[in-house]
Amino acid sequence: MNILITGGAGFIGANSAAYFAAQGNRVTVFDDLSRKGSAINLQWLQSKPSIQFVKGDTRRFDDIVDCVKQHGPFDCILHCAGQVAVTTSVVNPRDDFERNALGAFNLLEAVRLHNKEAAVVYSSTNKVYGGMEDLQIIERNGRYEYANLRTGVTEDRGLDFHSPYGCSKGCADQYFRDYSRIYSLKTIVLRQSCIYGYRQFGVEDQGWVAWFCIAVALGSPITIYGDGKQVRDVLFIDDLVRLYESSFVNIGKAAGKVFNIGGGPFNTLSLLELLARLEKLTGKKIPVQYDKWRCGDQRVFVADISLAEKILGWKPAVSPAEGVERLFSWVKENILLFN
Questions:
Q1: What is the Cα–Cα distance from 54 to 62, expressed in whole angstroms?
Q2: Which range marks the domain in which residue 53 is found?
């Protein structure tokens, strides 16, 4: 297959590009290299066969159109490009809008006009559900849990964009849905929860599992915003890439659908539990400081992933214990990349 990955030098995009290239596909990586670590990931990708790089910016319509015309038509497109942090969106909402909402719209228009047969998967976010303040949260065993959602949040949950990031990603999310209805594009929306893994240059504002691993390896200070009892269903990158593959393979029955994607109820982790696991791996007590809760931070998010299992034949295989150990080992082995 001929595959395009926007944001292909980022954490998720680079892992996806490497995987699909290893399967014998031709992969085009489209990226403006603005994100920390993207140039490092690109260097790694360029050592592999069947990967070509196109420098471009999805905010510029001509850039993405030229890519589609010159290197397409593509069989599959994975849209990962965008701004990824809630805090950054609050500081600079215009840039966030242009990278997420406008960038997604430009891609969809390029596909509609020049590559309508492609299967197109959008990397959306659970932030489209907002703070979900109406859900009853309880504290049990030092962590927050849903009082009544045993299997997690389903796709039937009403949308409630909270923060500029939630608005921009939510806007793109709905455009992807509607371009399937109105223009018959073969789009799939994946509302992803906490993804972590190799080649993730996490920072304090985004990518908390990777950031904690990096900070511990470097001896950098760690700040917990809130009380650390907040819980996410974490999903290791290898499992996510398998999901992308399943999405492309099953596009005939999945086109136009939305899926909540994460580790599900059996792969959850709190901030404090992650710190405890890293203390076990290092044999050291990790000092932390606390600050106030951040805008839009959910005390709990756990996705009900049963629809993805039913339609796409997918479920996670890597446990949080195994995934954190893999990531922390990779960070230590590549510590010079983070200095």
A1: 13
A2: 2-338
